[in-house]
Amino acid sequence: MPKTPVRPVRPPHRESAEPVPTEPGDTSYASIPLLVERHLEDFLRERLDSCGRIDGDFAEIAVTRLAEFVGRGGKRLRPLFAWYGWRAAHGAASGPGTGPVLRAMSALELLQAFALIHDDVMDGSRTRRGAPSVHAGFARAHRRERWSGSADGFGTSLAILLGDIALAWADDMLAGAGLSPAQWTAARGPWQAMRTEMMAGQFLDVYGQARRDGSEATALKTNRLKTAAYSVERPLHMGAALAGADRAVVGALRGYGADVGVAFQLRDDLLGVYADPESTGKPAGEDLREGKRTLLVALGLRRARDRGDRVSLAVIEKVLGDPGVDAGGIDAARDALTRLGARDAVEERIRDLADRGAARLDGAAIDPAARDALRDLAVRATVRDH
Amino acid sequence: MPKTPVRPVRPPHRESAEPVPTEPGDTSYASIPLLVERHLEDFLRERLDSCGRIDGDFAEIAVTRLAEFVGRGGKRLRPLFAWYGWRAAHGAASGPGTGPVLRAMSALELLQAFALIHDDVMDGSRTRRGAPSVHAGFARAHRRERWSGSADGFGTSLAILLGDIALAWADDMLAGAGLSPAQWTAARGPWQAMRTEMMAGQFLDVYGQARRDGSEATALKTNRLKTAAYSVERPLHMGAALAGADRAVVGALRGYGADVGVAFQLRDDLLGVYADPESTGKPAGEDLREGKRTLLVALGLRRARDRGDRVSLAVIEKVLGDPGVDAGGIDAARDALTRLGARDAVEERIRDLADRGAARLDGAAIDPAARDALRDLAVRATVRDH
């Protein structure tokens, strides 16, 4: 790989147009993603410097790649949910205390980088955000430079390492955010639980696929751990804990997060099968080809079995986990899932979860503006086309 | 994999006979490994319980395997060095403050588990401590149970996950050790530096092998980061920092650690090539077969080139990274390294480093008993046959 000068963390063009904060200290929800990125840039620039003093190649090849990956991070959803939790629990919208809190929340993006990099290795995914995944990119560099040994092995090794670095540094960023001792103690619980839950979810995903576990229970549990807890519930919990929320507020927010988080994932599952590839940026039917055991698929399989509909059963089972299946096979499986009512059942479940989640905020001592924003978010996260 | 009841963390038979502490509260050096194991058992048992509440399969298959791996941990060298650092900087030998400190030091063993599990994946090592490595073991279970998909892919995925868990939990164990705020702040510096340095060392190892980088400088730098800093220097630093040591004491201990740590690794390198397989538990010449770029090999290659000794050069280069090389090839390469004086040169370097390391303790305000013990350790770690 040719050496390049250490690049700025922010990529030259951003994935989507996001509102730019109008002034320093603006912490409206719309400004949070950019503030998060500023904290990440500061942290990673400092790490690039200190790693450069350890070894130039390490900094320029490994750490720069991580910074680039984190820079392309999209919506900054998890820090955003943490900020919602903070505001919901009456954390200040601005002032000297918000800097450390936002820095601590930004560490969630390093955790997300870790999860994506390692998940891509485990799933053998060759693309991520429209570019080669980390392991695929390093394997390509190995081939281009005609290095010694296996290119794929090299790519996997460096992706494992880069994910490890992101995981370790997520902890470093949280620990060094400048929180008060009380905040640090309060944040530790949700932070630690989230890390373990996301790994448990990934375990169930890998283990369930190996065992061809097509049960609805496993699909929902994996959803709950991998997405709901890790992406919504625990970030909200962490934000509320940082603001010193009491049990009732934490309970309401976690309940909301669990419901809306699962609904969010169920929407993703539907999009993964039914959406226009143009709007999702993923090949049509990729989730089916990868054999992902979603609730949609579990419901379809069960309904086909209950009805003795062997044709639909065969059509769906044929495509699951078959990377070589053609467009006709995907179409047939998709139609079977619709015909069996699995699609409608998941749509209904999404509506129920979003409604129930929003209702959980009623009655708790939550900041009214934050409550409105969270209700709005429950709709936007579950009714979307990409 | 058949489900098994959650097993105790300690394996039924231990790797080597180690002295058992004579009484509770005995914190002589000989008792440290067992006290460390007790802290690890407590921590992991609590995690097994809490993970069982998340998901039974996750706890029984993933977490139990990690606990088993940690239980087979051998000499507990890194916590031991941390304890030496603590005692050298006048930390108390017993009393209420030693529990949290030893618990914090025990987290180094989770970090070590993480490093070994992921390194074995990267190196493709199929055995570890006389048993299948984590990825090899899970791949075997996959084959035995005739699960779906690639057995090797499954093994790799679960080993990545198990390493991730160990890394995350190492931080959790440190953060929850019960240190005072001042101790926690003091320990963070060496802890964070150590994690980054070990990953930088592993990067250089993987990257250097891919580029067939045979330089002495890279061999020594990889040594310094992967072994010296991570195994000796930073654990000593962490222990001293926990005791509130001043810069002079920390400097002396780190200097000792860097020198003795490199010497320790150079001894390992020599044993990897010359030792009787009976005493090391590894196949003869495995390091050569794996293409490890040690100082020994770097010196041999350079000397052969300087002398225009093309025969020796060819003999050594032939075996490097060739898994299929036979015993005759290994013998020839070994003889060439001896004949070229590379072996003697490494022996001399080990003696110099051990002497210089021990001398660095002179003059600093280090506890005399700890100084004697560290001097003794410098000899034992560098003059050994396994």
What would you say about this model in short?
Two copies of one chain form a homodimer. Chain A has 386 residues and is mainly α. Chain A has a domain at 1-180: Orthogonal Bundle (Farnesyl Diphosphate Synthase), CATH 1.10.600.10.
Task: Explain the overall architecture.
The structure is a homodimer of 386-residue chains. With 386 residues, chain A is mostly helical. The first copy, chain A, has a domain of 180 residues: Orthogonal Bundle (Farnesyl Diphosphate Synthase), CATH 1.10.600.10. In chain A, 71% of the residues lie in helices and 1% in strands. The first copy, chain A, contains 16 helices and 2 strands. In chain A, a hairpin with a 2-residue loop joins strand 1 and strand 2. At the A-B interface, helix 1, helix 2, helix 4, helix 6 and helix 7 of A face helix 1, helix 2, helix 4, helix 6 and helix 7 of B. Chains A, B: It comes from Actinorugispora endophytica.
Keywords for this structure?
homodimer, 386 residues, mainly alpha, Farnesyl Diphosphate Synthase, 16 helices, 71% helix, disordered N terminus, magnesium (chains A, B)
SSE topology sketch:
Two copies of one chain form a homodimer.
Chain A: H1 32-54, H2 56-71, H3 77-88, H4 98-123, E1 127-128, E2 131-132, H5 134-144, H6 151-175, H7 181-210, H8 216-242, H9 247-274, H10 277-280, H11 286-289, H12 295-306, H13 310-319, H14 327-339, H15 342-359, H16 368-382
Antiparallel strand pairs in A: 1-2
Cofactor (chains A, B): Mg(2+)
Keywords (chains A, B): Magnesium, Metal-binding, Transferase
Protein name (chains A, B): Geranylgeranyl diphosphate synthase type I
